[in-house]
Structure formats: C-alpha cells, structure tokens
C-alpha cells in the first residue's frame, strides 16, 4: 500500500458549498499533527501522525477549504477540546442566548437544539431564559459530562438523520444552534437540509463561525487547522443556504476568536424580513476584494512574512539569555508553532488553564504544558501569546507580570512586543 492510500486524510475535490472545482491555492503548510492531539510525555513521538494542511479558495463561491479532510471519527470521538470558561466566552454565550431569544421573539418553553454542544455551557444559558434544551455532540466523554450535569446530550454527529430522529422524539425546534462547529462539517448540504426539517416553520438556524474576512485581513493563519474544514463569509453562506431551501435573515459580527460572524437563517417559506446587516456585509465582502485572486495571494505573502520574522524574533531573545514561554496552549498555537518551526528548543514551557492539557506536550512542538501557577512560580522574561484571541483579558490578568518587567509577543496581525508601557 502506498503512503498516500494509507493516509486517513482525503483530498478535497468538489466545493462543498457550490459543487465547483476551480480552486485557487492559498497556503500550504505541509504535513502537521492534529492540533488537539496533545501528547503524553511517556508517548513515543516517532510515529506522531501528520496530515497535509493547506487552504484553497473556490473561484465561484469563494469558500476557503482545507485541501485535505481528516476522517471525523479520528478527529472527534475521543475529543478533549473543552469550551473555554474564560470571562470573554462566558459573557459571549449569555449574550448569544439573549440575542436569539430576544430578536426572534422565542416563546418560553421552545426547543433549542445545539450541535457540537460540548459540555453544555451554551445550552445552560438558554435554559436560564426558560427554553427547553437538547445537545448533540459526537465526543462521547464530553456528551456524558454534559448529560451528567443536567444538559441532556445525544452522543452523536449531527446529520439529517439525527435531525429527523430528534424531530420525532422531541418535536420541532424553535432554534438550532451551532457555535464554532459548522466550519468543522464536511457535508454541509446534508446538515442544512436536516436543520430545515427539524425547525418549526418560523424557527431559526444560528451558526457562529470565524469570519473569513477577519482571518484574511488580520493574518490569522493559525485559525487554519485540520478541524476547520471551511472558512466562511456571508456571501458563501448565502449560496449554501439558498441551495438547500433556507435563507439568511440576519448577521452579527462578534469579536470572539479573532472575529466571528453569527449568521441567522430561516426556512425560505418563513416570514422573516432580511435585516440590512446581511446586504451590508455582502457589500463589504465585494468591495474588500473577497472575490479577487489578488486578496488571497496578498494574504499568503503576509503569512510568509510572519513565518520569516517570528522565529528570529523569538530566537534573538533566547540568544540574549532571556527565557521565553508560551501563554496558552490553544489548538491554533500548534499551527503557529508548526508553521514557524518553533519548538521546545525555543519555548521552555507553555501555561494553560485547561486541566486536561496540563502535564501533556503540545503536538508537533513537544513543549510541556503547565498550569498558570507554575508560570507564576517560574516566570519567563517573555511570553509568546499563543491564545492571542484573549489578548485583552490576558494582558489585564497579567498586569503584575508586565509591571515587573515581563513582556508579551503578540504574533498576529504581525509580531509585536507588548510591555507595561504599552498598556
Ligand atoms: P480557545 O481559543 O480554543 O478558547 O483556546 C484558548 C486556550 O487558551 C485554552 O486552552 C485555554 C487557554 N487560556 C489560558 O491558558 N489562559 C487564559 O487566560 C485564557 C483566556 C485562555
Ligand atoms: Zn464553491
């Protein structure tokens, strides 16, 4: 058997939104390990699996897609990514629940179904507003944790078949929600058709995805990892929904995860009026070059610039005798480190608040992950802010570190050093 045929990563062929096959190559990062496959120090790393990681853009609908799709059974059945309980995300989840219920006049007792519901934090915010809730998540351990905490969660992949089963057993939904999960789905047409059938006639499908425009403009290349199959803008999602009997009725931009959009869609026979924000963002996409090859070439050039400048910046500090560590061990950090070729020779350790990550090593880079308390006891001179999407919260929390002379490197949109004087 050839290497190629043993690889559980399948090469993308037709566009999952429009069916086209005229792809513009955007970036190609070579084979990298799965970003959430943290390693045990006792593991042997010789055979750490790596899969091609690259992005192409569909010249007809401008979906940005990974070049290779890793089998979801490999990615998600034993999945330990736990939704952040940071202040930023907790506040955001409460705001989403209020936004959905308020803007779409959802009656108390209506059913909210969430796909990729993780440990049930978002659904609990809906329950607090008087809604009935049901989660769906293929990560069996996480689904069991959620169900144990009182958020009933089916341990399944969401699909049209799952949607039909839910409609039969639990009734139709007022809201179907997917926060940062839609970008992980390959057969999006099946999902949209399934959601359409599961919704009440005036029900709403709300998804939150990283906004492709923000990713392109702010050089957020580390949003690219094997779980994120697709990078969406409003125009692309309009094409998708319209092909499957739904239409976008509203959209909100949100600052989380480097810039996201929350897109609200209704059935095409529902009475929702499209709000002006939809046309406004589609226009912004047109005028900012989202449909032009040159935009993607320029993005790739800026990513290459970061790849060339960040490693010498870090290594220069280390050569000056300074100790550098990573702040946060997010999945995106593994892309950043992998693309830049930074590893345990450069960063002494990373600190991360997630219990499950502490004591493990980062995939690929093999940097040990410790608790924030360890970081406070062994403060480095400089932290590379891998969790840059929480920069505001973290710089506030680490004031004492900064005031005692500590510095942060913020890697995107381009590497810069932040010290106490910059606050
Ligand atoms: P996320 O972007 O997927 O939410 O991951 C953020 C990671 O950063 C997660 O592993 C937790 C970590 N983190 C910290 O270690 N300290 C912090 O203050 C915050 C906000 C996140
Ligand atoms: Zn397409």
Structure description:
The protein is α/β, with parallel strands linked by helices. It folds into 2 domains: 1-291, 3-Layer(aba) Sandwich (Rossmann fold), CATH 3.40.50.150; 311-422, 3-Layer(aba) Sandwich (Rossmann fold). It is 35% helix and 23% strand. It is built from 15 helices and 19 strands. A 7-stranded mixed β-sheet has the order 8-7-6-9-10-13-12, with helices on both faces. Strands 16-15-14-17-18-19 form a 6-stranded mixed β-sheet. Strands 2-3-4-11 form a 4-stranded antiparallel β-sheet. Strand 18 and strand 19 form a beta hairpin. The longest helix is centred in the last third of the chain and has 27 residues, at 293-319. The relative contact order is 0.12.
Please give a handful of descriptors for the protein shown.
single chain; 423 residues; alpha/beta; Rossmann fold; seven-stranded mixed beta sheet; six-stranded mixed beta sheet; 15 helices; 19 strands; 35% helix; globular; disordered N terminus; binds thymidine-5'-phosphate; binds zinc ion; Methyltransf_Zn-bd_dom_put_sf
């Amino acid at each position: 058997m050839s290497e190629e045929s043993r690889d559980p990563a399948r090469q993308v062929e037709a566009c999952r939104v429009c069916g086209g096959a005229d792809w513009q190559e955007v970036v190609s990062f070579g084979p990298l390990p799965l970003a959430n496959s943290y390693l045990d120090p006792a593991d042997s790393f010789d055979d750490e699996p790596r899969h091609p990681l690259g992005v192409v853009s569909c010249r007809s609908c401008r979906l940005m897609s990974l070049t290779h799709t890793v089998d979801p059974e490999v990615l998600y059945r034993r999945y330990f990514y736990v939704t952040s309980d940071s202040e930023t995300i907790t506040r955001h989840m409460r705001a989403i629940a209020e936004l959905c219920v308020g803007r779409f006049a959802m009656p108390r007792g209506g059913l909210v179904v969430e796909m990729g519901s993780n440990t049930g934090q978002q659904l609990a915010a809906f329950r607090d507003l008087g809604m009935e809730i049901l989660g769906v998540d293929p990560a069996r351990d996480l689904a069991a944790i959620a169900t144990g905490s009182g958020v009933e969660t089916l341990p399944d992949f969401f699909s049209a078949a799952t949607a039909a089963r839910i409609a039969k057993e639990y009734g139709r939904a007022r809201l179907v929600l997917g926060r940062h999960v839609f970008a992980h789905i390959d057969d999006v047409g099946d999902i949209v058709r399934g959601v359409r059938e599961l919704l009440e006639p005036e029900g709403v499908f709300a998804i939150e995805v990283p906004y492709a425009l923000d990713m392109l403009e702010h050089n957020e290349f580390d949003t690219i990892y094997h779980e994120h199959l697709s990078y969406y803008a409003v125009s692309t999602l309009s094409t998708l929904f319209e092909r499957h009997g739904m239409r976008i009725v509203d959209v909100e931009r949100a600052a989380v995860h480097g810039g996201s959009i929350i897109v609200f869609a209704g059935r095409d026979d529902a009475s929702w009026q499209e709000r002006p924000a939809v046309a406004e963002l589609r226009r912004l996409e047109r005028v900012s070059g989202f449909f032009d090859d040159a935009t993607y070439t320029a993005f790739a050039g800026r990513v290459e610039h970061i790849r060339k400048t960040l490693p010498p910046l870090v290594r220069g500090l280390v050569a000056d005798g300074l100790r550098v560590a990573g702040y946060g061990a997010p999945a995106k950090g593994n892309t950043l480190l992998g693309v830049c070729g930074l590893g345990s020779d450069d960063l002494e350790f990373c600190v991360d608040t997630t219990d499950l990550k502490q004591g493990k090593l980062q995939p690929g880079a093999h940097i040990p992950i410790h608790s924030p308390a360890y970081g406070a006891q062994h403060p480095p001179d400089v932290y590379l802010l891998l969790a840059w999407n929480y920069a505001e919260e973290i710089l506030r929390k680490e004031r004492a570190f900064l005031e005692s002379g500590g510095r942060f490197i913020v890697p995107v949109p381009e590497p810069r050093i932040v010290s106490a004087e910059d606050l």
